[in-house]
Amino acid sequence: MSAAVASATRPAADAAPLALARTLRHRRERRIVMVLTTLVLVVAAVSLMVGAYNLSVPDLLRTLVGQGSSSENFIVFKLRLPRLTLAILVGVAFAVSGALFQTVLRNPLASPDIIGVTGGASAAAVFGMLVLGLGSVATSVMAFAGAMVVAAAIYLLAWHGGVVGYRFVLIGVGVAFMVQGLLGYLLSRADLRNAQDALTWLVGSVSGARWPEIAVLAGFLAVLLPAVAVLAGRMRMLQLGDDTASSLGVRAERSRLALLMAAVALAALATAFVGPLAFIAFVSAPIARRLVGTGSLALVPAALIGVLITTVADFTAQHLLPGSLELPAGIITGAIGAPYLLWLLATQNRIGKGA
Amino acid sequence: MPQTTDQTPGQASGRPAAAPAAEAAAPAASARHALTATGLSLGYDGARIVDDLTLAIEPGAITVIVGANASGKSTLLRGLARLLPPQAGTVTLDGRDIAGLPSRQVATIVGLLPQQPIAPEGIGVADLVGRGRYPYQGWFRHWSSTDDAIVAEAMAATQTLELASRRMEELSGGQRQRVWIAMALAQNPDILLLDEPTTFLDVTHQVEVLDLLHELNHDQGTTVVMVLHDLNLAARYADRLVVMRQGKIIAEGAPAEVLTEAVVLEAFGLTARIVPDPVCGSPLVVPIGRFHGTA
């Protein structure tokens, strides 16, 4: 038959176009990562230098290599560097968490701050502070547990012979309203001074960071982030939809559960340490993916965007707003995220379109 | 096996001729695997859509499943591809229950192209087709030049190689469908299941896609199972036709034997005349309707 003959005489296909496409794709992502890394370094340097006592670049470098005066050491190593480090770590945790949620549930609204996961952490933390009178460590543990419980509840409620993205999101939004209601109730019943503390926690802030806490957070991330890296291959297949992923040999439901657990743990951890810093999880991955624009998971660029938003927001809250009032970073991130949410709702008319 | 006896001479001579070219890129395609459903019942939420169905997919043939809407065609395909666990009965691959086999191993033998596959925003054609190699990758087995060769082969066969650097959203519907088929080919399955691969395509591209699948079946011996809406194209391209109604098979066999006026009436509730297709002699269904054909 002619078809068979044609195929037999067809020369072996040339793989050069594939190599070219791959090179272009990787180069683009690498370039974005380099630019973002540079920006992060600049912001980091500026946040270490600027403050009530300004350091010059040589001052900073001298201090970082251990040649600083005692006051410089105190400012850098006790005040500014812990704060910066905490901001970087939670930026990564929130951003990667959001990227996982949005990819696995295939919905740009699926982010821990929208679907009530960080809300659950908040309600539990405030309950711990106001009703149980817990200290800060116990409050963090409560927050972590609260996020886990709420996420498990959403998963079980959304379960319907499998979990579908939009169902998970809709139930999550409902749960978010419920925990808001609970929060309102707790705050309205509380003593005014305690309520003030709770409200501060609820805005989210990286101030008051201390090295022991940072070490604990870093330890958790050192376990979770490699786990995410291992699961990334499966997540790339889930991007193609459950049916395609399954036919390529991915156990879709099991992989989704594993990825959601990692995502919830990341969001819960970050919230436990700094409170529910608004919208970082929500906006980081979509921005990163738009920048890279190759259908890549763009986890590293997303993490860098998360770091950038967190550090810039904290710097802005500390130094750039008028008045001597030092604001928590969560106010700034909220101010960035809310317009993005409006834009997304206004332009996104196809539900279920991947983030 | 009986099916080897009734092949055309062209098929028989075509396969060895194609084998050396395919050898370097696709060594696995020579093995013939048997996919069988036995007493299979499938459904969602207790509703039974496929009911106690038994079907042996003929290796090396093109099987086309037809039937009215909601007759269970796509559900059966999903069940065969183990995307849907059976409510009763089993699907076996070479005699072993497919549910108990490692999913990656199954994926190297059975591939499925869903009706509406999802492309991540901004994804490039080469990247997408390359994802078809997933079942062959693992901890110790990373992307290699063999993968590149197989992907290039799949793209050449579907005439998508020149689109390698383009993005999916820039392509036409027909091009996009060819890219998805290329991805399924890169997976190098011995049995390829396709759920309405011609939906959303104009008639030219429908024929183009079906020709491509025919070529794949003839050149590489890939077993093709697909759901099609168009009865006439189904009759032309199928070696075996499976007609479904309300979750059951009402007729199965060579199109010329299966596609009778009685079967069309039973399956679709449609009065029709069957005439030989002037192009290739396969049965051609001519619907009658209420206002025409008083004869």
From TrEMBL, chain B:
The keyword Cytoplasm does not apply. InterPro entries: AAA+_ATPase, ABC_transporter-like_ATP-bd, ABC_transporter-like_CS, P-loop_NTPase, Siderophore_ABC-ATPase. Its main location: membrane. Residues 1-11 have a biased composition (Polar residues). The keyword Calcium does not apply. Residues 1-25 are annotated as: Disordered. Pfam families: ABC_tran. It comes from the Bacteria. One of its GO terms (cellular component) is plasma membrane. Residues 16-25 have a biased composition (Low complexity). One of its GO terms (biological process) is iron ion transport. This is ABC transporter ATP-binding protein. It comes from Cryobacterium lactosi.
